[in-house]
Every structure is written in structure tokens, then in C-alpha cells.
Write a structure and sequence with these properties.
The protein is α+β, with helices and mostly antiparallel strands and 356 residues long. The protein has eight helices and 14 strands.
Length: 356
Amino acid sequence: MLDGRQVCAEVLSFDVSTVALKGARDYQEDSFISNFALGQDTGFAVLADGMGGHTSGHVASTLVVSEMFAQLKIKDQMLDEGVLNIPSTLETAAEAANARVSQHVSEDDEAHGMGATLLSVVIRQEKLFWISVGDSPLLLFRDGALRQLNKDHSMAPEIDMMVKAGAMSEEVGRDHPDRNTLTSAITGGKIRKIDCPEHPVTLLPDDILIVASDGIQYLSNEVIARTLKQTQSGRSVDIANALVEEIEELNDPEQDNTACLIFKVSVSLQEQPIAVDIVDKPVLATAPEKVAERKPSRIVRIVPKKPKAEELAVEERPEAQETSAFDVEEEHHEDALAAGERRKAYWYRGQRFYKD
């Protein structure tokens, strides 16, 4: 029942930093922007890597980022309230960005051939949605492992498949001149491939999310993972600076532009109105071997908000059974008795997520 009460609840918070490097290029073609306002459950970011030469590449990425941002910002309040279907909203915004590029190309003869990749994320509460076109990677670092969440719309995956099948040597595949050739981009024409999953990924405390242009992939996944592991206890700006140092130390004469948005996920306490049930439960004594005989006391049980179907995570995770305060304390005692086997529990809005 609702009684207007406020409680301190554990919620995910995001520490966000951005960085951009020109690399060995004479000009910068990457553009990005982020919008994560205090007091809102929803934030978003947009990144684009331009192509088409000095002027056209920068213009293309700027047009894509500005149009995507405008489309999402207009619907900011509805996104925060959970009214809109986020994947559909992202696809509509991407089409608008593509139309904006098409308009510019039709008005400027020198703009023919321009285009950009697109990577945009929307994070609502703990749910991560994205849309990507091209080869800008969306990287997730969790429990010491790094993986790419979005699809790579370049020739690199196909070349790697040929190497795996034995049709090409590993050395030839690694240095193949067509590796970075895009198979999809925002050019004002038909968008050939779009990666926009219907179901989101659930973010957990201590996750590190990287939204980047492909310039970051001049570093190997092993180097990126090692850098994140060494800096994960710091702030997002410390992580960004460490990645920059690795790129500069690499000193690759072909280093591409690199733009990154670093999201460090943590837990914070916020006051929130709750629905409560008043239940009578016996109180467990502080020592597990001594249960005191006491009169039942009145305990407030938080009723978790039932998730909508579209908010279910891609990754299957054990869902917690509805639990009272008595049950939680009893489980904590049992965990304490199983030394070496205890798993760390993260609590978030009445649900439990475990990691080894």
C-alpha cells in the first residue's frame, strides 16, 4: 500500500567522462555529446565518426550527432517517464539524422560521398539500449573481462571469418587493406545495416561502459582490459586519462581520430516514495545459534516495482523471490556460515544480482 513514506533506496549512478584525440591525422572527424542530468532516471549519449575528407567528414559527424541529440532531447521527458518504446525512438532518430545528411548533400555538390558512423546509447535506470551503424564499438568491462556489445558493420568480421575457415592466413587477415571498409553508414541513402536490439542489457555496479570511435581499437582488447582493471577503482576521468596515455605510448604513425565516452557504474542512495506491506514476522536473534523468544514485531517490506516486459535484460540472471526483512537476515546468517562459498549480493530496487 502507498503511505507517502520516503526511504533510502540503492540505485545505479553514472560517473561520465569524455576524451577526444586527433591522433596522427591532420583533422578531427569525430563528434560526440552526452546528456545525463541529475534527478533523472534516463540519460543518453551520441557519437559519430565522420568520413569524406577534412571538411565533409567533420560536417557529416556534426550533422548526425546534432540531429540525433535534438530528436532524443525533444522526447527527454517521455523517455524519463518510460512512456516511449526506446528502440523505436532510437531508430526514428537515426532516420532523421540520415535525412539531415541527405538534405545537406543535395544542397552542396562538394558534400557527395560524405557520411558517418553512428553509436547512440540510452540508459534508463539500469537498462542499456543502443543503436549503431558502422564500426564504432560499444564496449562493456565486467568482472575483469572486456567484450563488444554491438555489431561491427565493417569488413573486419568477414575477413576474420575467412581466416578462421582457412581461406586466408592470419597475417594477411590482420593487415588486410579492406578491414576498415564500412558495410553500413549514415550517408543520406538507404541504411544497409542497423544494430538496435529490442531487449536491453542490464548494467551492474562496477561495470565500465565505453562508447567510442574505432580509433580506440588501435589498442588491443588485452591492453584496454588491463588498463581498465588497473584504474577501475578510480573516477571515470582517471580511466579516460589512462587510455589516452596508452594510445600516446603506442605512437602509431597511422593512429586514427579517437573519441571516447567513459561510463563508470556505481551504487548511490536516494530517497524514494515506496509502496509497503505491513507484515508480522518473528525477529531473529543476532546470534544464529540463539533465537530469542520475542513477540512478533511489525516489519516494513518494500514491494518492488514489477518490471515491464520491454525492460527485461538480454542476459539471463537469476531473479530473486519476493523476500521479507526476516528472510534476508536469515539468508545472511547462512551465507556467513559458508565461508569461501559466499557470493557478493548487489541489491537494487528489490531485486538481487550476483557475481562471483
